[in-house]
Amino acid sequence: MNIAFVTREYPPSKRAGGIATYILETAKVLSKNNHNVYVIAASDDIQKETESVEDNIHLIRLAGGDFYIPVSNRKIDKIRSRLRSIFCYWSYRKRVTEILNRLIIEKGIDIVEFAEYGNEMDHWLRNNQYQIPFVVRLHGPTIFDRATCETVSFLRKPINWFLGHREIQCALKANAISSPTRALAEIFLSMSD
Fold first, then answer.
1. Region 83-97: what's the mean pLDDT?
2. Quick one: DSSP state of residue 16?
3. Which helix (H) or strand (E) segment is 92 a member of?
4. How far is the C-alpha of 101 from the C-alpha of 152, rounded, in Å?
5. Left (φ > 0), alpha (ψ -120 to 50) or beta: where does 136 sit?
6. What is the Cα–Cα distance from 118 to 7, expressed in whole angstroms?
7. β-strand pairing of 57-62 with 111-115
């Protein structure tokens, strides 16, 4: 089977959380069981795009991510990161679609796994002329406020509110949804009503 993972992070990156380890370990197990595994990940260097094979896993790190890794805690870095998340949102997802469609054509991808967080499936769903089945791995939608355990309000965080609703809408189109915890699954189900 030919399997593609689309992820915001992949080791050795530590910029976004712990999902990178999950993707790495899952990809290794699948590869050892004679599956062909392709990982499309955001490059920590927003200017550099690379392709390599590591542990028999084909890894593509994409430039142009909709994030900026601050080199300091300066206010200008925080502003730069926020602006990049707005202005590069669609162009980065378009690049994910281009690479994923290339893999579908050249490698015969059978199934794709996305995270709902970051919604990198959004552009691809609108351009999935190949009708490849896909799975969504719950990660914690943008609309979920981890501090209060409630959804963010439109008035308080309009961008998070909009992007979070779009993540849920796209995730609900998946052929399957997986969750690392029952609690996250219940939160997601309550938001999708």
1. 85
2. S
3. helix 89-107
4. 34
5. beta
6. 9
7. unpaired
